[in-house]
Structure prediction request, 264 residues.
Amino acid sequence: MSDAPRVVFITGASSGIGYATALEFARQGMHVAVTARRMDRLKELEGVVHALPQPHGDILTLAADVRDAEAVQAAVSLAVTRFGRLDVLVANAGVGQRGSMVDSDWEHLETLLRTNIDGVLHSIRAAVPEMRRTGGGHIIIISSIVANMTAPYAASYSASKAFVSSIARSLRLELEPDNIHVTDILLGRTATEFNQKRLGQVGYAAKAPRLPVMPVDQVARAVVKASRQRRKTVTLRLFDRLVVWGNALVPQLIGRRALKQYKT
Ligand SMILES: NC(=O)c1ccc[n+]([C@@H]2O[C@H](COP(=O)([O-])OP(=O)(O)OC[C@H]3O[C@@H](n4cnc5c(N)ncnc54)[C@H](OP(=O)(O)O)[C@@H]3O)[C@@H](O)[C@H]2O)c1
Prediction:
């Protein structure tokens, strides 16, 4: 790899983890191409990056809906035209959804699946050819500790994250000959707009447990650190590891407990 600053492509950078991660990468001197639908928020991020103390990386803001493969492809092409290469993809854009699997609006479930699954696949399929061209790269998938969890009333969200975590495991081996590494980040609850914007039925979160919340800057620093390492899976906190282990050991117990808390 040359001495030129590394180039990072981040989906869902108009708020929360994507926004904070883009800022952290730029602070560390890397160029960031950021995408989302809310261009006003991306422009605000651009202003914040430009105001960072020198030296900092450059930023390119691009409107793209991750559900649209052509839009994601066009955004990746523009990023490469501007910065000459693509070293790191952070497949972060995602939405939450809660409610009965059967009675939830199909429109909500479709938005969830197309954003959290199709969006990640479109981003990877657009980024990998560019990484291959320059001899390697790193794909970071923002998944969740609820991937593979028995999660009544959050079943579709949980399954959407299980899908991308499963993809990460197999893709890592597929892309090994291309020197492209895949890291799956299993995140716990983080202080962002995510929970307020969650799709779904009102009332289902009413009895939800109060889980410890991570500051978004802590997550951003962890994502940047992960981009410098070659770890397969990253789980940030002991609490989150306990949740993952607990679910692996006694999935029905965790599921039954969740059922009591979420049932209205
Ligand atoms: N916060 C948590 O507790 C938590 C825990 C575990 C995992 N995660 C995961 O972390 C990721 C980021 O979430 P966050 O907490 O930072 O939430 P957030 O603040 O709501 O950010 C979500 C980002 O995704 C973008 N997005 C949503 N739909 C999109 C679409 N169709 N096309 C393009 N961009 C889209 C949003 O931008 P626009 O609306 O402007 O398009 C926004 O920038 C998600 O994958 C989420 O599942 C979050």
User: Anything to note?
Assistant: The CA atoms of residues 176 and 182 lie 9 Å apart. The radius of gyration is 18 Å. The longest helix spans residues 106-133. The chain is about 50% helix and 15% strand.
